[in-house]
Amino acid sequence: MKNKENTTRKINMYVLLLIGVVISLFPFYWMVVGSTLPSGKIFSVPPKLIPGNHLLENAKTLNESLDFARVMWNSLFIAIIYTVISVLLCTMAGYAFAKFQFKGKKFLFFLILCTLMIPFQVTLIPLFEIMVTLDWLNTYQAIILPSIASPFAIFLMRQNMITIPDSMLEAARIDGAGEFKIFFSIIMPTMKPALAAVSIFLFMSQWNNLLWPLITLNSKDMFTLPVALSSLIGMARIDYGQVMLGTTLSVIPILIFFLIFQKNFIAGILGGSVKG
Amino acid sequence: MRKWLLSLLVLIVIVSGCSNDAEKGETGKGIEDPGEVAGKITVWGWDVAAETLKLSVDKFKEEYPDVEVEVEDFNSGDLYEKLTVGLVSKGSGMPDVILMEDERIPGYVNQFPEGFLNLSEMGYDKHKALFSEAKLENVMHEDSIVAAPWDIGPTGVFYRVDLFEEAGVNAEDIVTWDDYVKAGIQIKDKLGIKMLPIDIAKYDGVFSQMMQQQGTSYFNENDEIDLTSEEAVRSMEMVKKLYDNDLVLNNSGWDGIVTATVNGEVATVPYGAWYTGTIMDQAPDLKGKWDMFYLPQFSEGGTRYGNVGGSAILVSAYSKNKNAAYAFTEFFTTDVDTQLLGFEKYGLFPSLKSTYDSPILTGNSAYFNNKPIFKNFADIVSEVPKVNMNKYNAQASQIMANAQASVLLEGTPVQEALEKAEKQLVNEIRE
């Protein structure tokens, strides 16, 4: 009896989950199909579910509208460099806040948390003026540097690192390890899940960033993917086939990135939640 | 989202308004050194307009070899966002020359009166006679020209010659809007095809064309909101009549209209002259099957002319190279060959009247039923009634679209919907 009840419950659950999967995957699938159709056919009712044969034409027009390889390179370069530097900086900051005692520590941490609450739009204009003064418009550093220290990442790393037992660090110090040695050989390896989570978070936020690059970048050969895709929306006509293809292609790197780190992702996000 | 951002930016300006007083002195207007025109200028535009600007550079350099021109191309929404940021930060990162839609000009010029060069002071007034009065009205601010007129959209009703013939309707018989409704019913009964597309909840284009042909807009001649005028009631009643007779295809956005045009879901499209480019581009198979007639009138003897859309060129007051920027703007908007180039390649209909004698504009178009369709448009440019546009245009248009939806889709009486819209607009713009 009980077994049977269990099975029906399971079946019900899976049916629900399946519906959820279909709902969340369908737009994605539709985008992929859309990239193989000519613009006029994409919005037909009922929606087309079988890929068409217009993929090459879409690729051709997409490449005519923008130098896709260059744009992809810009986006990858910016996102990767940003992620690497930012992860390192934020981990160090988080480590300091979690494990060191220094004057004004609580206040500084409070300040950092405060910046989490300021919407980006507020700092946009001052930041933009700084970029103009530095003559950094239209450069990679203008996109990478202003957001290099992410308060959210620092917060997440601190919460995770608090759980590291102090005795472990003391043991390392007694064995004669320097602070950098401790950080790189002991802290970093134990923080892998958190690092993965922070990396994915930072990479995604930079990869999808539209507003700031849009404001600071002016020439087509510096555009990142979101800015370039946005430029495809013409005044008089929009070729949705090429937009769909561009969007599909822009998802691939982030998909790969996520697949590599996903095992650690959930663990990392939840890492600081028990003992905070 | 964008609206929200913009209002936030405006808030920032207000809050930080007093901080930069010291620098204000240097953004003066006028010519510093009239002799020399040289240096590098940057131009912002979008889409085919940006392409036209690029094409013009070669000929411009024949006259001004020392000026380097760089045209940067964004989509128009992005351009406005970047422009607002630049203006808020007093010219940082701004280009020298900016393309702008007519309907946006009053908003920007009122909000940033120091941001744009007064073209009259640079000497643009001498070209006034080259443009129609209605167009000049759009680019003036307090008796000065702030934007150099470029393209316009004289209106007409594009129609399918083959469908009209099949249904036995003669386009020349359509003189009043009532004739138009009658023709629509005939086509609907015979072929099952609707008469025209309207994006009911989002765009009041047909309504505003009707308003303009009657010589009025959302605002009366004293710049006061007037959404309950006789003309407004008459126009909305007509839109309702079209809808009640099941002649309106309710479709979403620009793409909906284009799709309906291409797929033959509608027999006519009332729109601006620049729509010719889109039809030819998107529906090459329908060659020879399109033609146009002027907007129907409301009563015998009423005017049949209106205008939709158009753009102009502004010069940044923060430009380090005002002479070169002005020289380019003046050249681009007054050079006949350059204006014809944009028309021939991309269908951007020039407001420069001296282009209208060119064979390119007067000749018969093979695509449009071998008729001189562009000449038809050019002929009416001077007769388009001049109407009032101000900085609240965009808001008014959105509110009217809402009113349109409530009249057509929810059955609200016209008078009531218009009164409600007027009240709403008055509330929204109260400062």
- Sequence of secondary-structure elements of chain B: HEHEHEHHHEEEHHEHHEHEHEEHHHHHH
The name CATH uses for the topology of chain A is MetI-like fold
**Could you state the order of secondary-structure elements of chain A as H and E?**
HHHHHHHHHHHHH
Average pLDDT number of chain A: 88
Membrane topology (chain A): Multi-pass membrane protein
Family (chain A): Belongs to the binding-protein-dependent transport system permease family.
Domain ABC transmembrane type-1 (chain A): 72-261
Main location (chain A): membrane
Would you mind describing this structure in some detail?
Chain A has 13 helices and no strands. With 276 residues, chain A is mainly α. Chain A has one domain (53-270): MetI-like fold (Orthogonal Bundle). In chain A, α3 packs across α10 (192-207). The longest helix of chain A is centred in the first third of the chain and has 33 residues, at 2-34. Chain B is an alpha/beta fold and 431 residues long. In chain B, 46% of the residues lie in helices and 14% in strands. Chain B contains 18 helices and eleven strands. Chain B has helices at residues 2-15, 47-63, 76-88, 105-111, 119-122, 133-139, 161-167, 177-191, 205-213, 230-244, 253-263, 275-282, 322-334, 336-346, 359-362, 373-380, 393-410, 414-429, and strands spanning 39-45, 67-73, 97-101, 140-141, 144-145, 147-160, 196-198, 248-250, 268-272, 290-293, 307-315. Chain B is globular. The model of chain B is unreliable at 15-34 (pLDDT under 50). The chains are: A mainly alpha (276), B alpha/beta (431). Chain B: Residues 1-21 form the signal peptide. Chain B: This is Lactose/L-arabinose transport system substrate-binding protein. Chain B: InterPro entries: Bact_solute-bd_prot1, SBP. Chain B: It comes from Sporosarcina limicola.
